[in-house]
């Protein structure tokens, strides 16, 4: 099947044939022996989705349909199709991510509308963002450019004993300064 050869990134069927379906070369997420057993038992398989590995090691998503066929000579063989559904899987994931982003935005706007103060607003935003990012602890700081310092504005899950000393709050050459100037992430150990 030239289309399957091309789909899997090979130049010729002979290259693909060397790879073999029985081993783990395709890594379809199921054992080929189980596929064959199911096909022999049910006579057909319709719409089986799996990930297959291409020649270059990249993953494609496929949908397989197969049926058991008996030839005129009585020999039994399999006949089927393999459809590349990678783009639809990527589109589905993009829609899922977009929907989740809209839900988060809705949560942020709703909590903002209910906040009675800047502190409540920041606490609500921090709660939502920390939940989405699966952070147990997070803090928000305000930057005072005149004083060249940071001031704590909201906190979630951070123990009261934890605090950043003046060398971190004063903007200079420290991790927080790099976050503000360059947008780098900073993680602090509570030792």
Largest sheet: 3 strands, antiparallel
Number of helices: 7
* Strand and helix order: HHHEEEHHEEHH
Estimate percent helicity: 40-55%
Strand percentage: 15-25%
Average of pLDDT: 81
List low-pLDDT spans: none
Assign the structural class, choosing from mainly alpha, mainly beta, alpha/beta, alpha+beta, or little secondary structure.
Answer: alpha+beta
Name the strands of the widest sheet in spatial order: 1-2-3
| Computed CA radius of gyration, to the nearest angstrom | 28 Å
Principal-axis shape equals elongated
Extended strand count: 5
N-to-C span: 61 Å
Question: What would your notes on this structure say?
Answer:
The chain is an alpha+beta fold and 191 residues long. Helix content is 42%, strand content 24%. The chain has helices at residues 2-7, 13-19, 32-42, 86-114, 118-133, 166-169, 175-182; strands spanning 44-53, 59-70, 76-84, 138-144, 149-156. The chain has a 3-stranded antiparallel beta sheet, with helices on both faces. A two-stranded antiparallel sheet has the order 4-5. The longest helix has 29 residues, at 86-114. The protein is elongated.
């Amino acid at each position: 099947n030239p289309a399957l050869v091309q789909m899997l990134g090979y130049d010729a069927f002979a290259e693909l044939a060397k790879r073999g379906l029985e081993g783990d070369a395709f890594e379809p997420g199921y054992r080929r022996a189980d596929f064959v057993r199911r096909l022999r038992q049910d006579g057909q398989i319709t719409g089986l989705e799996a990930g297959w590995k291409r020649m270059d090691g990249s993953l494609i998503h496929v949908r397989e349909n197969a049926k058991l066929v008996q030839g005129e000579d009585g020999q039994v063989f399999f006949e089927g199709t393999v459809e590349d559904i990678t783009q639809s899987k990527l589109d589905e994931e993009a829609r899922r991510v977009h929907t989740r982003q809209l839900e988060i935005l809705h949560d942020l706007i709703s909590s903002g509308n209910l906040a009675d103060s800047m502190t409540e607003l920041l606490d609500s935003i921090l709660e939502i963002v920390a939940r989405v990012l699966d952070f147990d602890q997070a803090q928000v700081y305000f930057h005072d450019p005149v004083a060249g310092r940071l001031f704590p504005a909201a906190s979630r899950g951070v123990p009261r004993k934890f605090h950043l000393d003046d060398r971190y709050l004063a903007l200079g050459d420290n991790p927080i300064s790099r976050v503000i100037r360059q947008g780098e992430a900073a993680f602090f150990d509570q030792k």
